[in-house]
Amino acid sequence: MYKTDEVFADMRRIRLQQLGLILLGLLILFFMIERFARNEIKLRKASEEKARIDTELAVAGKIQQEMLPKTFPDGVFGTVEPALEVGGDLFDFLKRDGKLFFCIGDVSGKGIPSAMLMSVIHSLFRMVSMKEESPARILGALNEQICRGNDSNMFVTFFAGCLDLYTGSLHYANAGHDKPFLLSDSVELLPSKANLPLGVFPGTVFEEQSCRLLPGDGLFLYTDGLTEAKDPDRRQFGRQRVQDALQACLSDAGMTPEHTVRSLSAAAHLFAGEAPQSDDLTMLLVRFAPGDLVRDRITLTSDTKDVSRLSGFVKDYLAKLEVDRKTAGGLRLALEEAVVNVMSYAYPPGEAGEVAVYADSDRKEVRFTVVDSGFPFDPTAVLSADTTLEAQERPIGGLGILLTRRMMDSVSYARKHGKNVLTLTKSIL
Amino acid sequence: MTTTVQEIDGKLVAKLNGELDTAAAHDTELALQPLMESGGKDIIFDCSELEYIASSGLRILLSIRKNATEQGSRVVLKGVNDVVLDVLNLTGFISIFEIE
User: Which of A239, A265, A287 is the last residue of a domain?
Assistant: First the structure.
């Protein structure tokens, strides 16, 4: 028999133990809840942060896309399809002096770091090609800028070209980029020396090459996102498939540059199937598609009496283009002033020289090119006359270049092969 | 380009006929030489038959204008067509000549 007291004491002890256990359980439960809540907050913060970064990336990607050309003149089309939100690929082009300057590039790596460099290169190309005409020197200028402070050793493969839209003359230089395809009677790789990519060594000299496109010929430029597009078995699309697809486009006479680029993109995506896009895919097609060209040239002596021959030449030429009387007057004046300037100052007094004038037009724009082999002289660097002075203060002179500038849309000077080359353009639409 | 200078009603009237480009500038300048001795008489340029003018032509007009001011003569351009007027506008010459 147990004593009642002992029984009660045992029961109390057991109850206390139970109570302790319950308390311990509650404590553990509370601790778990607290940890869970804390994690939940952390997680929510992280996902908010991620959403913010995603939004910013999407905005950055949008800004980057917006910097690239969206409208295209006849004969040009390009696209960039970034693999991530932002990309390291770029293409661009700009038209000046009746010439099309264009480029394509691929910055090493992917994502934000290469996107930042891509944006810098894009603006550099715009700035440099506004002034510089030689693709090799454009690459040189870009290279110097990229090499400066490039501690992360990024580099860029880049191809730049300049196509004369009246003559088809193509100058180009390649900084380690994939060789473009030349679309002529057949599809061939454009012979181009690779050179080093941009950003590798300061002082790199890039080799320039040239050829002449015939009307209808084109140049297809792309980044390795096209040739290295992979199918689910990790096989690459490859250069041969690109060439075959281009050949198929070439056989279809109705293919515009846009159709061709889009069909190449479709072919690459079809090949890749379900496999995710691993690299940025960029394509640019430039076609030499001169309209109804009207071209003429004349060679004058440096004697100002020859201006009457120039006047006759310009009048006949502009009559062929059916330019209205007032525009024709302005064009004739602009050219006369530019040519008289050369006649008067390019050659030493008493020494006869020559001035050649080339006139080109697609009936939308007129381009005059004035070429002489006299002293290096850039008339665009000369200050124009001050047109606000009173009669007595007006100097006799300085009016010629002013008139040329005001009458034309653009006037630019280059020293090429020991010659002064002055290019004047004006829209006649 | 033909250039004639006549005195009509006490005024020197120079008729510019044709295109005053750089090739024509030298002969035109010689033909206009009498205007340098205006002696206070007003100078009228009849530009109604002037189809074109280049900066070399403007220079001739400017030197006559400067000289005339010293001799107390007015210089008036009459019958200027739109092409020539454009050039006068672009060069600011519009403000240093009287245009009628």
Answer: A287
